[in-house]
Structures are given as C-alpha cells and as structure tokens.
From TrEMBL:
Protein name: Transcriptional regulator containing an amidase domain and an AraC-type DNA-binding HTH domain
Organism (species): Pseudomonas amygdali pv. photiniae
Keywords assigned by UniProt, alphabetized: DNA-binding, Transcription, Transcription regulation
Domain of life: Bacteria
Pfam family of the protein (one): HTH_18
Amino acid sequence: EQLAEHAGVSVRTLFSGFREFRNISPMAFLRNVRMERVHLELRNPGTDSVTDIAMKWGFAHLGRFSQEYRKYYG
C-alpha cells in the first residue's frame, strides 16, 4: 500500500502493472526470490540450520516451506 501511495496509483494498478511487466504476480515473484536465496544458502552450508535459514527468509511454517522447496528443487 505504501509503495502504491508513493507511486500515486492504486494497489490494484500497481499489481496489474507489475504482472504485465514481469508476467508474474508480485507475491509469486517475492516467493521465488526468497526460495532462491534459501537455496543458495543451503548450497553453501555454514553453521546455520535449515530451520534457521528458512526462518531468516520469512518461511515461518516449516512444513509448507519443505513442500514448496521440494516443488522448486526436487
């Protein structure tokens, strides 16, 4: 809402323009980016657990995160 207000357009117009430009909804785009970041961190293991990394990127429900991760990366 703040972004739409700052741009001087409605939320609906902002979402519609984003979808037209990216061919994906803003929420799906954000989910893809977050999933990619988790995947990159998991490929370069450090001291953080899978749970810590998932939580860091906003995946609070680990069961759903696990399902989504498998859907993306097998």
